[in-house]
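User: C-alpha cells for Alpha/beta hydrolase, please.
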Amino acid sequence: MHDGAGHRIGAEHRMRGVRTVEHFFTVPLVHADPSRGTIEVFAREYTSPEHDSVRDLPWLLFLQGGPGGRGNRVTSLSGWMKEAARHFRILMLDQRGTGLSSPVNRQTLPARGDATAQAEYLTHFRADSIVADAELIRRALGSGPWTVFGQSYGGFCTLSYLSFAPEGLREALLTGGLAPLAGHPDRVYKATFQRVEARNAEYFERYPQDRAVVNRIARHLADVPEHLPTGERLSVRRFQMAGSFLGGNTRFDALHYLLEDAFTATPEGPRLSDGFLEQLGQLAGRASNPLYALMHESIYAQHEASDWSAWRVLESYPQFLPEAGDLLLTGEMVYPWYFEEDPALVPLRATAGLLAAKQDWPALYDLDRLAANRVPAAAAVYRDDIYVDRDLSLETAARVANLQVWETADFHHDGISDDGEAIFRRLLAMVRNGSGASRQPA
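Assistant: Done. Predicted C-alpha cells:
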C-alpha cells in the first residue's frame, strides 16, 4: 500500500448558502505497485456557512452511484446534503476515471495503448482501487475514521471499504447499495429482468394510453430512419433504454412526459420530434459516463468472467426482444451492441470485449471480515428496487455483522432524490443509537 497522496487545494467558492473547496490528490494507478505511475483524483468539499469554523466538523465521504458517474455538482444544500451539512464536512468524490479524476473516455484511453493495454488499465478502476484512493485521501486531509455514505454502486464500494479498510470508517450508511457478495453476475440479471418486467406492468397500468404510444414508436423506428442528435440512426433496442426512468419514484412519471412529446406532424407524415430525440439521446448515450458501459458487469465479477451476462440472460426473457409484441422498456443492462451503436463507445468495442472475457478478477469483498464487522452500519433496502434486488440485498445483509436494515416500499432506487433529508437522518440515527431498523414497509 502506498504511504501517502499528494494533496493540492484549489479554488474556494461561496454560493446560495454553501461553501465549496476544490481538492486534488495524486494517487498511484496501482496501489500495490506505485512504480506503475499515478493518476489524479478530484473531490469537492461542501459545507454550510452556518458553521463559523468547519475545522472541528468531522468528514463525511459520499460515494455516488455508477460505476462511471462523477460526484454530484450542486449549487445549494438541499435533500440529504442539507441534513448532512448540519453534522459534517461533505467530501464529494469524483471516483477515479470520472469527472475531473483522470477521466476515462474514447478521447483519453488511446494514450494507454491498444485495446489490450486499455483493458489492463481499466482493471484498476473498480471498488478495491476506489477504497484505496479514499484511504489515502482521508489521511491527506488529516481525518480520523470518517463516515461514508454510499448510494447504489457507492454502497458496493462501501462494502469493499468494510472488507479492506474498516479502520478508516467511523460508520457506514448505504442506500440501495447492498451488492451480492458472491456468485456470478447472471444472478443479478435474472432478478433484474423480472423486476423490470413487473415495473413495466406497473407503468402501463398507470398510463394505459402509453402502451399504444410505445408500440407505435417501435413500429415507426423499424420503418422510418430517425437519427439522434449525435448522428446515428435510432434503433428500437436503443429506444428501449428509456426504461431507465422506471427505476425511480421521482422519474417514473417523467417517462410519460417524454412519450407525450414523441411525434410531430410534418408534410411527409408523422416523425419523431426533435425534442423527443434530444431527450432520448441523453438517456441512450454514454458520452458523459463511458465507464458505466465498460465496467458495469465487472462490478459483480469475482474470479470469473461476466461474459456479457445481461445479453446471455436475455435469452431466457424473450419478452424483452423488440419483435416480441408489446414492447417492454429495459433497465440498466449493458449489451455488446452498445459498442456498435453509440458513437462514444464504438472506439472502445475491443476493449469492452476483453473486459467481458476477463476471468481473473480479484475478490471485491472479504467475507470473513464482513462477518466479523464492528463498524456501525445501516442500509436502506428498497423493496421494489429494479436495479439492486431486494432479495439479494437481504442475503448480503445477513452476512454483514453490525449492519442494521431499514426495508421500505415507499421509495425506489432514487430514494435520496425523493426524500434524502429524511432518509439520511434515519440512517444516521440507526448507526448512532440503533433506532429505526425495520424489515417492514415504512
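User: Anything notable?

Assistant: The longest strand covers residues 18-28.
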